[in-house]
Design a protein that fits this description.
The structure holds two protein chains of two kinds. By secondary structure, chain A is α/β, with parallel strands linked by helices. Chain A contains five helices and five strands, in the order βαβαβαβαβα. In chain A, α2 runs parallel beside α3. By secondary structure, chain B is an alpha+beta fold. In chain B, α1 packs across α5. Classes of the chains: A alpha/beta, B alpha+beta. Chains A and B meet through α1 and α4 of A and α1 of B.
């Protein structure tokens, strides 16, 4: 089964770093967007199974996107990947419906652990 | 990022992400100090030649009066891969806001302002440099921070000691806590050899992507 993935991060480097460590075959089914607004345009029109979301972004940040998704009842497995390493940020995104929270820089090991934890593999 | 001095787009992208991570670490340290959640903004970075330092600073920092703290950094005492001087620049009004955030229920004296400036700049500088160091497999040592000036005009910021550097990496940092937001500029002044070393590392990192 192929799953459709959306990677939302304003940093080209961060998007590539993540793509490189995705499980085999996943990168081919992943779309890349640069901010929350672009992500919103995609998830309103397409079926996305898994969203990797940065928090601090221009135009529309990750927190705001999560809130809009809640208000529009858009349910997507979302893993936040962020340089905002405050415990409060983790609480806030989980309260806003995110599955999990990964601190940047992300390693392949951490990603696999999280994907396993949520039975996404 | 504009006016990037001799940096390719890939190098700049990588450096931007490294600085993002450093600023995230600084935000966490500041949230401990303020005992509150700190909202981060995307730091904007620029790289420019130190010969344009004053004119570029005037554009980057419109405040009439500034306060600034300097600190040296180096990877090794002899033949460092990277070394330089960092300058954290605050605009005046920021310091009073910072004092409120730290919950100082007393009048902010000159000495207290000095302590706040040293503390915050040390946090920001330390987190930023350790963020950079972690990703390029280096470790930075710092000289103790010292005040360059409090409530001075920007023309008085630099002296002849600052003219020895070739390049400047400037990082504009913005944090907000509740209704307050504060902005400061972190300048990393470096010699040519350090910037070349950094570029080599960035190239290697980008190629590994």
């Amino acid at each position: 089964m192929t799953i459709s993935i959306l990677i939302c991060d304003d940093s080209n480097v961060a998007r590539k770093q993540l793509q490189r460590i995705l499980p085999e075959g996943w990168a081919a089914n992943s779309q890349l967007v640069k901010n929350g607004q672009e992500a919103l345009d995609v998830i309103r029109t397409e079926k996305i199974d898994l969203l990797f979301l940065d928090l601090t972004m221009p135009v529309l940040d990750g927190f705001s996107l999560l809130k809009i998704m809640q208000s529009e009842a858009i349910v997507i497995n979302t893993i936040v990947i962020t340089a905002d390493i405050q415990d409060e940020a983790k609480k806030m995104v989980k309260a806003a419906g995110a599955l999990d929270f990964i601190r940047k820089p992300i390693s392949a090991n951490t990603l696999m652990k999280i994907l396993n934890r949520h039975k996404l593999l | 990022m504009k006016n990037s001095f001799n940096f390719t787009e890939d190098q700049r992208d990588y450096l931007q992400e490294i600085c993002n991570i450093g600023m995230g670490q600084a935000g966490k340290s500041l949230s401990v100090l303020f005992e509150q959640y700190v909202t981060l903004s995307v730091p904007s970075i620029e790289i420019f030649s130190a010969t344009n330092l004053m004119s570029t600073l005037k554009r980057l920092i419109p405040a009439e009066k500034i306060s600034a703290v300097r600190q040296g950094f180096y990877t090794h005492v002899v033949d460092p891969n990277i070394c330089g001087e960092s300058i954290t620049i605050f605009s005046n009004t920021d310091v009073e806001q910072l004092a409120q955030l730290i919950d100082l229920n007393q009048e902010v004296t000159f000495e207290m302002e000095q302590e706040i400036l040293l503390e915050i700049s040390n946090i920001i500088n330390g987190a930023c440099l350790s963020g950079i160091a972690g990703q390029i497999s280096e470790r930075f040592f710092n000289t103790p921070p010292s005040i360059i000036g409090q409530s001075i005009i920007i023309e008085n910021l630099l002296n002849k000691d600052h003219l020895i550097w070739d390049h400047v990496l400037s990082i504009k940092i913005q944090y907000s806590v509740e209704q307050h937001s504060f902005q400061c500029d972190l300048l990393l002044l470096m010699p040519d050899s350090s910037v070349k070393y950094l570029q080599d590392v960035l190239n290697r990192l980008f190629d590994e992507l």
